């Protein structure tokens, strides 16, 4: 398995707004080959720190998703979000091969 974390900081007063966006996400990634799970994590001590975790069955399937037209479309929509402060956020991406479970 392969997991990817995208961690980003939003102003704490906007964290609920961002959480609602992810709760109502398009779920397009869910249909990608090899997709296993999606989680949105919120740091307990710093509520403005959010992390998206994607789990795929393989690195190859994740890379196929990340190179897809659907991936590009979703991320272009994020850049056009009306709240430009949120649209300008650049996440820190970490990628991991699962070696034990």
UniProtKB/TrEMBL annotation:
Record PROSITE patterns: ABM (PS51725)
UniProt xrefs under Pfam families: ABM
Q: Does the keyword Oxidoreductase apply?
A: yes
Instruction: State the UniProt keywords alphabetically.
Output: Monooxygenase, Oxidoreductase
Which residue ranges does the record assign to the ABM domain?
2-90
Source domain of life is Bacteria
GO molecular function ontology, one term from the record = monooxygenase activity
Q: Which protein are we looking at?
A: Heme-degrading monooxygenase HmoA
To which species is this protein native? Answer: Bhargavaea ullalensis
């Amino acid at each position: 398995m392969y997991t990817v974390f995208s961690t980003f900081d939003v102003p704490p007063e906007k964290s609920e707004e961002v959480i609602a966006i992810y709760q109502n996400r398009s779920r397009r990634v869910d249909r990608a080959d090899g997709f296993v799970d999606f989680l949105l994590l919120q740091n307990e001590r710093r509520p403005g720190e959010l992390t998206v975790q994607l789990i795929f069955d393989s690195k190859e399937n994740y890379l196929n998703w990340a190179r897809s037209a659907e991936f590009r479309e979703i991320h272009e929509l994020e850049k056009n979000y009306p709240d430009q402060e949120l649209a300008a956020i650049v996440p820190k991406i970490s990628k991991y091969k699962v070696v034990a479970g």
